[in-house]
Specification:
8-stranded antiparallel beta sheet; elongated
């Protein structure tokens, strides 16, 4: 940044506007009125920028009346310098499904299970009280094959075999935060 504080703040404002403009098309309205997330993480840092984290998370939806997803994640991370890190993680994810039409059958509610591998690259930059972060995540998920209880068109009990399936996703996550001086608070804006 230029030693001139006004010029520096002007550049930061332009960067924030750019990030928001890129991310706004990804934001959409949800039918869920209220939801909540709860998570517990245990992290151990080792020498030379290595780290290991275990995390469990539970997410509720539909005005907190049902489970959206829950998962357990084991992550190994490496931070070779203050402005760059990388991580590799494994998730076991459970997601209750409502069931519904599946060809000529109507499925009963069931638990969808996924095994996910996540690979993260994260760049960080700090200017005074401001911090800028950009994470790129490649996610590869395998939904386990299931046999689900169902009913046929005559109302008779049946079973449906759901095949396993792979999904591959690239997620981008920009984040801007401001560390309030003489405070533990650092509000942030991030969009994924």
């Amino acid at each position: 940044c230029n030693p001139n504080p006004k010029m520096c703040m002007r550049k930061i404002k332009c960067l924030l506007i750019f990030i928001v403009c890129i991310c706004v098309p990804q934001v959409y309205a949800s039918d869920d009125v209220a939801g909540a997330w709860a998570s517990l993480s245990i992290k151990k840092n080792f020498n030379h920028g290595l780290g290991l984290t275990f995390r469990g998370e539970y997410r509720a939806k539909e005005n907190l009346t049902s489970t959206d997803v829950f998962f357990l994640r084991l992550t190994g991370s490496y931070k070779p310098c203050p402005y760059f890190s990388t991580a590799l993680a494994y998730d076991f994810l459970g997601s209750p499904q409502k069931g519904g039409d599946y060809g000529a059958l109507v499925l009963s509610p069931y638990l969808k299970q996924q095994h996910r591998i996540l690979f993260d690259l994260q760049e960080m930059y700090k200017v005074g009280q401001w911090s800028f972060l950009f994470r790129q995540r490649f996610l590869s998920a395998y939904a386990s094959p299931l046999t689900v209880a169902a009913t046929d068109s005559l109302g008779q009990a049946a079973e449906a075999s759901l095949p396993g399936a792979w999904t591959h996703i690239l997620r981008l996550y920009p984040q801007v935060s401001y560390a309030i001086p003489n405070s533990r608070w650092a509000p942030y804006l991030g969009v994924e």
